[in-house]
Structure formats: C-alpha cells, structure tokens
Amino acid sequence: MTYCVALKLAHGLVFASDTRTNAGVDNVSVFRKMHTFSVPGERLITILTAGNLATTQLTISELEDRSRAADDRNPSLLETVSMFQTAQVVGDMLKAVIARNDDTGQKADSKFNATLIVGGQIKGQPPRLFMIYPEGNFIEASEDTPYFQIGETKYGRPILVRAFDAEMSFEAAVKLLLVSFDSTIKANLSVGPPIDVQYYANDSLKRGYETRIKADDPYFLKISTGWGEALREAFQHLPDFNSD
Amino acid sequence: MTYCVALKLAHGLVFASDTRTNAGVDNVSVFRKMHTFSVPGERLITILTAGNLATTQLTISELEDRSRAADDRNPSLLETVSMFQTAQVVGDMLKAVIARNDDTGQKADSKFNATLIVGGQIKGQPPRLFMIYPEGNFIEASEDTPYFQIGETKYGRPILVRAFDAEMSFEAAVKLLLVSFDSTIKANLSVGPPIDVQYYANDSLKRGYETRIKADDPYFLKISTGWGEALREAFQHLPDFNSD
Predict the structure, then answer these.
(1) A201 phi/psi in degrees, rounded to 5
(2) Range 102-161 of A in CB contact (< 8 A) with B
(3) Which residue has the higher pLDDT, A223 or A75?
(4) Cβ–Cβ contact A171 with B under 8 A
(5) Distance, CA of A65 to CA of B52 (rounded, Å)
(6) Among A72, B119, B194, B228, which one has the highest count of C-beta atoms within 10 angstroms of its own C-beta?
(7) Mind listing the domains of chain A with CATH numbers?
(8) Which has the minimum average pLDDT: A68-77, A181-190, B22-31?
(9) How many other CB atoms are there within 10 angstroms of residue A89's CB atom?
(10) A44-76 burial string, b = 16+ CB within 10 Å, else e?
C-alpha cells in the first residue's frame, strides 16, 4: 500500500508521500513515490504514485526517458504546452504501461493498476492539480475538492476534511499532512516513513522546499505524540452521553 | 455498507450499529442491525450484523426461529451452555446461510458474505465478545484488542485507537462511539443514522440500556459539531512545521 496526498492551497501546492512498498508483509522496501520534472523559470511538475511498483516505476522511467530523447511523437513533460496536456501525456503513458503488462499472457495475483497525482504550473498559466486513474483518464482539483489522496486514503481523511483551509500557510499544511500520515501509519503497516514532503509557491516556477521526514524526526515525533494527547484532551472536553 | 462497533470494557459491553442499507446509491433503506436474545437473570446475547442484508436477515431469522421451536438438533441461543458455544452456533448458521445462497446456481454481482459481532454473558461465566467471519470461524476480543469493528471500519478507527480506555464509563464509551460514527458518516454515504446503542453491565444478566439516536438528536449534534471544533482547536495548538 501507499499513502500520498496533494493539497491545492490559495498560494501554492503541497505534496506528501510515504515510501513503503510491500509484496506481502515479509517483503518490505523503501522507494520514493514523489517525482519532479522542472525547468527553472518555466515549469514545475510533480507526480505522486500509488499502486503496483513495477507499473509506477516504468511509467516514471518512460516519462524521464522521453525528457532526454526529444524526438518522440509525444511531447516530454519538459515540453508540454499546458498542465492539461501534461495530465493527458501522463495518463496515456500510465494506461499504455498497464496494458503492456496485462498483454503478456502472465497473470499476477494482484492487478498491475496504479493511480497518480500530477500537479504543477507552466509559465503564464495557473497551477493545476490532477488525479489520474489506471484507465488514463483524470479529474482536476477544484475549490470544492481542493485535495487528492491516493493509496490508503481512509484513516487520514477525517482530519483533512475537518482542518483543511485553502488559506493556511505551507507550514500549517505540512503539519496537517503529518497528522494525516500519522493516523494512517498507526493503522496500516503497509504505509510507513520516511515521508517525502514538497511545497511549491504559485508563480515561483522552480522546485520549492523539499525534505524527507524520517520516523525519528523530532518534529514528526512531537506531532505524533502531541496529536494523540490533543485528541484525548479534546475528547475529554466533550460532554458525556446522558442516559436519563 | 454498514458500521458496527462493540467495546469490551472492564465493567461491561457496549454495542453500536448504524441502520443504513443500500443496493446502489438510489436504493437506500433503514434496517436494524442489532439483535438481542435474552433470558432475564440467565443470559444476554447481542448480535451486530454487517454485509449482505438477505444473508444477515436470514441468519437472524433462523436463529430466532430456533429459539421458538426447541426440538432442533442444535441448541437455540436461549439454551447454549457458553458464549463459546453461542459463537459456534451463530458461526455455523452464518456459514450455512451463505452456502445455501451460493449453491442456487444464481450469481449475484456482490457476494452473499456477511460478518457478525456476537457478545454477551451467560450466568456463572464471564462476558465474552466474538467477531464471526463469513466462513463461520471466529476470533475473541482480548485485553490487547478489546473492541471489534465491522463494515466501514477505517474512518472511525483512529479515535478508537487513541481514546479507548477499558475503564471508561458507559457514558464516555457512548460518546467515543458517536465520535467514531460521526467521522464515518461524514466520509461514507452508505453509513447513516439512526444509530442503535446498547450497553450491558457485567453480571446484570438482562437487557441493559438501549436507545436509538437519530440524526437530529441534540446530543449527537453537539458531539458532531463540538468534535469538529475540538479537532480544529487541537490542530491549531500543535506547532507548525519549520522549514529552517
């Protein structure tokens, strides 16, 4: 499993992804699930990946390869003319990779499916955020649904629903994401640190702040412990049920 | 979908279940998912049901029918000699009902599966709590895992993990369950009020307090609103991330 979230704030985008992959509980590895394509001053595109690791790695590798050999029929992610076209290119590639595996006659126990989040900005256009399905089609974040989750989305959703605010600072957004990740990590063994975090300020057109937060990171530990205490305290302050 | 929870406290058992059933989003009904078998002074057995409604209704009906016609080869739930035997009888019935449907040659889009929680006490023995799988086998709650959830379990789990305390009062336990249900109801349309709640004091050997909490119940509204505010406040009080 996996847990990735991207938030569309009023002033930028925030991405976070865990790094645990597993094939059964006895085959656990660390892989990066956040991939950035950037031309400073011109574009920033970040992709988060969830699903079959062979599928997502091949999809990213094909996209990177295309960025190097520019004579392909399809534009590379360094050349797309809009974020919409970017989502189309990524969706087509994802669909093609899945079809290629499905077509080998081999059948795996689990499907080759994967789901991606693609966000970023191209010069002269607004920042946009998309979620791309295994079928290659996609949806875009809006004011009503200003964030996307992929992978193990349920445990970490209630706090996002309650505390997300499009006007929040990057620093508060990272706090929100770490709370959401902490709930997920506590509940699902197949989601685990380190957590990759990146945020992008609108119109900066370059890689923003990036960090990898490890399990023993003092701030993450403070959030994890502090959130448990804060939850218990908040719970204590609500009035008990009265059966009379 | 469905959401049911049972807690094993030091001094008793607490049961809660939603009442929404759906076959698609345009075919939504209200059905009770909490069923109690009781012989005052001698036994109290409560069953919570999740899964295919035809399966769970038939299972409960067969168990009730057996309680009326006592000459069956298997003991009725009013005659089992232990909670362990109770779990066996319920598990065997569930398995038989599922097999009966699977055996008709008809194939439904969704499986006929169901999962049950069975808890209660028989005179002279300790209270026990079991979760019963569609295969008819079961597991028992312990000190390490003192509660069971069935149905849509994920959204409401983080608060259970953080705030459950085996020594908590019935009134605090009902509060905890309503917070857990509120998170679930907010996230999944197929879980909905009214919520049936029941609690049983150890060694009372009779039906305990029972109530049905509707969507417009003032206490439930207070918990729902208050919890949102408390969460946001708790979140504000945690320190923001610092990128320096």
Answers:
(1) -85, 130
(2) 154-155, 157-159, 161
(3) A223
(4) yes
(5) 49
(6) B119
(7) 3-237 (3.60.20.10)
(8) A68-77
(9) 19
(10) bbbbbbbbbbebbbbbbebbeebbeeeeeeebb
Closest Cα in chain B, distance from residue A229 (Å): 8
Residue B134 is predicted with a pLDDT of: 93
Sign of CA dihedral B78, B83, B88, B92: positive
Model pLDDT for residues A173-194, shown as the tens digit of each residue: 999 999 999 999 998 899 999 9
**Residue that is written with structure tokens 């508060």 in the block:** A172
pLDDT band at A28, cuts 50/70/90?
Answer: confident
Interface residue B228 vs chain A (CB under 8 A):
yes
Residue A172 touches chain B, beta carbons under 8 Å: yes
Query: How far apart are the CA of B29 and the nearest CA of chain A, in angstroms?
Result: 24
Q: Which residue of B has its CA nearest to A220?
A: B241
Q: Minimal Cα–Cα distance from B7 to chain A, Å?
A: 16
Prediction pTM value: 0.88
**In angstroms, rounded to a whole number, what is the distance separating the alpha carbons of residues A16 and B88?**
46
DSSP per position, chain A: --EEEEEEETTEEEEEE--EEESSTT-EEE---EEEEEETTTEEEEEEEEE-HHHHHHHHHHHHHHHHSTTSSSPPTTT-SSHHHHHHHHHHHHHHHHHHHHTTS---SS---EEEEEEEEETTS--EEEEE-TTS-EEE--SSS-EEEEES-STTHHHHHHH--TT--HHHHHHHHHHHHHHHHHH-TT--S-EEEEEEETT--S--EEEEE-TT-HHHHHHHHHHHHHHHHHHHHSPPP---
Q: Do A238 and B179 touch (CB under 8 A)?
A: yes
Q: Are A4 and A33 in contact (CB under 8 A)?
A: yes
Encode pLDDT of B106-141 as tens digits: 555 557 899 999 999 999 999 999 999 999 999 999
Matching residue, tokens 């992610």: A77
Q: Check CB contact of B1 with chain A, cutoff 8 Å.
A: no
To the nearest whole Å, the CA of B68 is away from the closest chain A CA by 32
Tell the residue number behind the tokens 């218990």, with chain if given: A232
Residues A132, A45 contacting (CB under 8 angstroms): no
Q: Helices (H) and strands (E) in chain B — how many of each?
A: 5, 12
Distances (CA, A) of A189 to A2, A25, A37, B141: 10, 8, 30, 21
